[in-house]
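[step 3/7] fold_predict: job queued, chain A
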Amino acid sequence: MTSFGLTGCDEERPLLNSERIQHRFGSYGVEIVRSGPGIRVSNLYSEDASRRTCRTLAITEFVQPVDARVDAVHASILAGGSIGSSLRDAGWEVHKRLTYIGEIPLTDPQSELARLMHVSVPRSLAIHSYDVSVSRSGDHIDYASIVEIHHPEYLDVQQLRAIYGTSADEARPLRLPGDPLRL
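[step 4/7] structure written:
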């Protein structure tokens, strides 16, 4: 498994997804598509004059119960804040442990995912998953497991492997919590 950390002072750290979308498409926003106890489905989008385009659909399962040491930042994340940048801005070092890189089929033209991404079907979409933990002053907290599905004009499997490495490919079966957007 590949692990890497993100800190506020580490100039060589990998870009956060929000930063990568902003850099590539010139804008970035996050919209909460669904939220419930322990889960959040988010549309990480770029926007032009005419529409929003989902660049990453992020399905997040939060470790339950949420550790009290991250309660304040967790509340801002549930309200729509970007997970990585919110945790980092609150002074936490963010660690991601890659668990999967692959593709999934998008076959239903009526699916919410096809609508959010403005793509024709059938097609394959790049997907990866990772576990998020945070640390600060000797404290270490497991925070969430995240599955990200990417727009084909944003990231493909080869680009994910270049960013995150290849050690996680099919390392464990990919598990999507429920069927949040009828793929």
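[step 5/7] annotate
Residues 3-11+24-164 form a domain with the Chorismate lyase fold (CATH 3.40.1410).
The chain is about 20% helix and 40% strand.
exit 0
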